[in-house]
Protein: Cobalamin adenosyltransferase
Organism: Sphaerotilus montanus
Amino acid sequence: MGHRLTQISTRTGDDGTTGLGDGTRVPKDHLRISAMGDVDELNSQLGVLLAEPLPDEVRELLVVVQHELFNLGGELCIPGYTLLKDEAVLRLDEALATHNATLPRLEEFILPAGTRSAALAHVARTIARRAERAVVTLTAQDPSAVNAAPRQYLNRLSDLLFVLARVLNRANLDGLGGDDVYWRSERLLRNAE
Protein backbone atom coordinates (compact mmCIF):
# COMPACT_ATOMS: atom_id res chain seq x y z
CA MET A 1 0.00 0.00 0.00
CA GLY A 2 1.72 3.08 -1.28
CA HIS A 3 -0.21 5.96 0.27
CA ARG A 4 -0.35 6.78 3.96
CA LEU A 5 -2.49 9.55 5.39
CA THR A 6 -0.40 12.56 6.34
CA GLN A 7 -3.35 14.86 6.91
CA ILE A 8 -6.97 14.14 7.61
CA SER A 9 -8.84 17.11 6.15
CA THR A 10 -7.93 17.19 2.46
CA ARG A 11 -11.24 18.58 1.17
CA THR A 12 -10.87 16.28 -1.87
CA GLY A 13 -14.12 14.55 -0.90
CA ASP A 14 -16.19 17.72 -0.98
CA ASP A 15 -17.37 16.79 -4.47
CA GLY A 16 -18.96 13.54 -3.22
CA THR A 17 -16.11 11.26 -4.25
CA THR A 18 -13.41 9.46 -2.31
CA GLY A 19 -10.09 7.92 -3.24
CA LEU A 20 -9.34 4.22 -3.27
CA GLY A 21 -5.95 2.79 -2.36
CA ASP A 22 -4.99 2.53 -6.02
CA GLY A 23 -5.60 6.25 -6.58
CA THR A 24 -8.92 5.99 -8.43
CA ARG A 25 -11.82 8.11 -7.24
CA VAL A 26 -15.32 6.73 -6.82
CA PRO A 27 -18.61 8.17 -5.55
CA LYS A 28 -18.97 7.96 -1.78
CA ASP A 29 -22.07 5.81 -2.23
CA HIS A 30 -20.18 3.22 -4.32
CA LEU A 31 -20.78 -0.36 -3.19
CA ARG A 32 -17.07 -0.76 -2.41
CA ILE A 33 -17.15 2.28 -0.11
CA SER A 34 -20.28 0.95 1.61
CA ALA A 35 -18.54 -2.36 2.29
CA MET A 36 -15.44 -0.58 3.58
CA GLY A 37 -17.59 1.56 5.86
CA ASP A 38 -19.39 -1.46 7.31
CA VAL A 39 -16.05 -3.18 8.00
CA ASP A 40 -14.75 0.01 9.63
CA GLU A 41 -17.89 0.25 11.79
CA LEU A 42 -17.47 -3.40 12.81
CA ASN A 43 -13.86 -2.79 13.79
CA SER A 44 -14.90 0.27 15.80
CA GLN A 45 -17.60 -1.73 17.59
CA LEU A 46 -15.00 -4.34 18.51
CA GLY A 47 -12.95 -1.48 19.97
CA VAL A 48 -15.92 -0.64 22.21
CA LEU A 49 -16.21 -4.31 23.22
CA LEU A 50 -12.48 -4.38 24.00
CA ALA A 51 -13.01 -1.51 26.46
CA GLU A 52 -15.06 -3.93 28.63
CA PRO A 53 -13.71 -6.47 31.12
CA LEU A 54 -13.13 -9.66 29.08
CA PRO A 55 -11.56 -13.06 29.65
CA ASP A 56 -7.92 -12.92 28.50
CA GLU A 57 -8.37 -15.44 25.68
CA VAL A 58 -11.35 -13.51 24.27
CA ARG A 59 -9.43 -10.22 24.47
CA GLU A 60 -6.41 -11.70 22.68
CA LEU A 61 -8.62 -13.14 19.94
CA LEU A 62 -10.50 -9.87 19.40
CA VAL A 63 -7.25 -7.90 19.11
CA VAL A 64 -6.13 -10.27 16.34
CA VAL A 65 -9.55 -9.90 14.69
CA GLN A 66 -9.21 -6.11 14.71
CA HIS A 67 -5.92 -6.37 12.82
CA GLU A 68 -7.42 -8.82 10.35
CA LEU A 69 -10.42 -6.53 9.79
CA PHE A 70 -7.98 -3.73 9.01
CA ASN A 71 -6.40 -6.05 6.43
CA LEU A 72 -9.86 -6.82 5.06
CA GLY A 73 -10.58 -3.10 4.76
CA GLY A 74 -7.27 -2.61 2.98
CA GLU A 75 -8.16 -5.35 0.54
CA LEU A 76 -11.52 -3.73 -0.16
CA CYS A 77 -9.76 -0.38 -0.63
CA ILE A 78 -7.47 -1.66 -3.39
CA PRO A 79 -9.34 -3.48 -6.18
CA GLY A 80 -7.60 -6.72 -7.15
CA TYR A 81 -5.34 -6.71 -4.10
CA THR A 82 -5.12 -9.62 -1.64
CA LEU A 83 -4.30 -8.79 1.94
CA LEU A 84 -6.53 -11.05 4.08
CA LYS A 85 -5.02 -14.52 4.17
CA ASP A 86 -6.87 -17.85 4.15
CA GLU A 87 -5.24 -18.56 7.52
CA ALA A 88 -7.39 -15.80 9.02
CA VAL A 89 -10.56 -17.71 8.09
CA LEU A 90 -9.04 -20.91 9.49
CA ARG A 91 -8.18 -19.11 12.76
CA LEU A 92 -11.85 -18.12 13.14
CA ASP A 93 -12.96 -21.70 12.42
CA GLU A 94 -10.62 -22.95 15.15
CA ALA A 95 -11.81 -20.31 17.63
CA LEU A 96 -15.42 -21.20 16.84
CA ALA A 97 -14.78 -24.88 17.52
CA THR A 98 -12.86 -24.16 20.74
CA HIS A 99 -15.41 -21.77 22.26
CA ASN A 100 -18.48 -23.63 21.03
CA ALA A 101 -17.23 -26.81 22.72
CA THR A 102 -17.49 -25.08 26.12
CA LEU A 103 -21.16 -24.14 25.69
CA PRO A 104 -24.33 -26.11 26.36
CA ARG A 105 -26.52 -26.97 23.40
CA LEU A 106 -29.08 -24.30 22.58
CA GLU A 107 -32.65 -25.32 23.37
CA GLU A 108 -34.28 -22.20 21.92
CA PHE A 109 -33.42 -18.89 20.30
CA ILE A 110 -31.65 -16.45 22.55
CA LEU A 111 -32.04 -12.70 22.81
CA PRO A 112 -29.11 -10.35 22.24
CA ALA A 113 -28.91 -9.58 25.95
CA GLY A 114 -27.26 -10.45 29.23
CA THR A 115 -24.03 -8.83 30.30
CA ARG A 116 -22.92 -5.58 28.71
CA SER A 117 -20.02 -7.33 26.96
CA ALA A 118 -22.34 -10.02 25.57
CA ALA A 119 -24.78 -7.38 24.30
CA LEU A 120 -21.90 -5.50 22.64
CA ALA A 121 -20.75 -8.74 21.01
CA HIS A 122 -24.27 -9.16 19.61
CA VAL A 123 -24.18 -5.63 18.18
CA ALA A 124 -20.84 -6.44 16.54
CA ARG A 125 -22.38 -9.66 15.19
CA THR A 126 -25.16 -7.74 13.45
CA ILE A 127 -22.66 -5.29 11.96
CA ALA A 128 -20.59 -8.24 10.71
CA ARG A 129 -23.69 -9.61 8.97
CA ARG A 130 -24.31 -6.22 7.34
CA ALA A 131 -20.68 -6.03 6.22
CA GLU A 132 -21.00 -9.53 4.79
CA ARG A 133 -24.12 -8.50 2.85
CA ALA A 134 -22.28 -5.44 1.51
CA VAL A 135 -19.40 -7.61 0.29
CA VAL A 136 -21.84 -10.07 -1.30
CA THR A 137 -23.65 -7.20 -3.06
CA LEU A 138 -20.34 -5.79 -4.33
CA THR A 139 -19.32 -9.23 -5.60
CA ALA A 140 -22.69 -9.73 -7.31
CA GLN A 141 -22.16 -6.51 -9.23
CA ASP A 142 -18.58 -7.42 -10.15
CA PRO A 143 -17.53 -11.04 -9.48
CA SER A 144 -13.84 -10.09 -9.65
CA ALA A 145 -14.26 -7.18 -7.20
CA VAL A 146 -13.45 -9.13 -4.04
CA ASN A 147 -11.66 -12.37 -3.24
CA ALA A 148 -13.52 -15.15 -1.42
CA ALA A 149 -11.66 -14.75 1.90
CA PRO A 150 -13.30 -11.44 2.97
CA ARG A 151 -16.81 -12.83 2.51
CA GLN A 152 -15.91 -16.07 4.29
CA TYR A 153 -14.15 -14.18 7.08
CA LEU A 154 -17.16 -11.97 7.78
CA ASN A 155 -19.48 -14.98 7.74
CA ARG A 156 -17.34 -16.86 10.27
CA LEU A 157 -16.78 -13.75 12.37
CA SER A 158 -20.51 -13.15 12.80
CA ASP A 159 -20.90 -16.77 13.94
CA LEU A 160 -17.95 -16.40 16.30
CA LEU A 161 -19.37 -13.21 17.81
CA PHE A 162 -22.62 -15.05 18.55
CA VAL A 163 -20.66 -17.78 20.31
CA LEU A 164 -18.50 -15.24 22.15
CA ALA A 165 -21.64 -13.45 23.38
CA ARG A 166 -22.69 -16.73 24.98
CA VAL A 167 -19.19 -17.18 26.43
CA LEU A 168 -19.25 -13.62 27.82
CA ASN A 169 -22.63 -14.16 29.47
CA ARG A 170 -21.20 -17.17 31.26
CA ALA A 171 -18.01 -15.33 32.21
CA ASN A 172 -20.35 -12.91 34.02
CA LEU A 173 -17.59 -10.36 34.64
CA ASP A 174 -20.10 -7.61 35.48
CA GLY A 175 -22.36 -9.79 37.66
CA LEU A 176 -25.39 -9.25 35.40
CA GLY A 177 -25.31 -12.43 33.35
CA GLY A 178 -24.50 -16.05 33.95
CA ASP A 179 -26.52 -17.66 31.17
CA ASP A 180 -28.17 -17.03 27.83
CA VAL A 181 -31.32 -14.93 27.80
CA TYR A 182 -33.87 -17.17 26.11
CA TRP A 183 -36.67 -15.93 23.90
CA ARG A 184 -40.04 -16.66 25.50
CA SER A 185 -41.56 -18.51 22.61
CA GLU A 186 -45.05 -19.95 22.57
CA ARG A 187 -43.53 -23.45 22.50
CA LEU A 188 -41.39 -22.83 25.58
CA LEU A 189 -44.32 -21.37 27.46
CA ARG A 190 -46.49 -24.42 26.61
CA ASN A 191 -43.72 -26.82 27.65
CA ALA A 192 -43.26 -25.03 30.97
CA GLU A 193 -46.90 -25.51 31.95
